[in-house]
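Entry details:
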Amino acid sequence: MSCTHDEIVSQPDLWRRVAELSTDPLPADGEHIAVVGCGTSWFIAQAYTVYRERLGKGAGDAYTATEFPWGRTFDRVICLSRSGTTTEIIQVMKRLHEEGRPALLITAVAGGPAAEYASEEVVLDFADETSVVQTRFATSALQYFLGSLGHDVEASAADAERALAMEIPSRWVEADQISFLGTGWTIGLAAEAGLKLREASQSWTEVYPAMEYRHGPISIAQPGRLTWVFGPVPDGLAEQVHETGAELVTFDGCPIAHLVLAQRLAVERALARGLNPDTPRNLTRSVILP
């Protein structure tokens, strides 16, 4: 099949391993945090900070590395980087180090260039990946974050096993457009799903907060297209999508498991188009700037 496929399939077992890790390095309740990442890691940061804040555990903000607000102060900064080699992440961590501001690094590769600037490093090396496309490291990091907040990782893993066993309809593989929607913390998941489909299969995807979809974007909904909702479907939205002729895609389990299904769809669409989902065009495993 592909290494991306194999890495997607491995996720439930990896999440169970994550649940056994100490969460002592993560923020205490009440701390105002910033979580910094690029690409997929930025979307995972969005999901975590919103989930944590809405539980009343403390304010949190997610930033892509180049947009980190240097004029603001935080009780804790977390940098998320699969390889620890991304130039923008290294630059942020170096400056934080120079300013005497501690930063926790969550990575899959120990001792990378960013590590020397970290006050502490959590290494999820068992979740590292061969594929350029991130899947299991990102979801394992999110399970690590959310597990520290009481999220039921075992139930989520069981839901992911259901998502892995589901048949993907040919009409999903052939759909000419997909809109991913979310509310609250699942908006980050919607953004990540949209990115996966674009990266692996060059698909036309769009991403919106679910309630914003009706403020214009629903105009592109029509037969042969999907409206994919992470988490609860807002009242009235299902009926409106049905009226457009588009198909509404939902899932009755953990939204992170629903992301696994979207990852699978990305691979299926890539293969159907004659593309290699492991090595998307114009992309590398890490963005290293000259």
Summary: Strands lie at 33-37, 60-64, 76-80, 103-107, 120-123, 177-182, 205-209, 225-229, 247-249. The mean pLDDT is 96. The first strand starts at residue 33 and ends at 37. The radius of gyration is 19 Å.
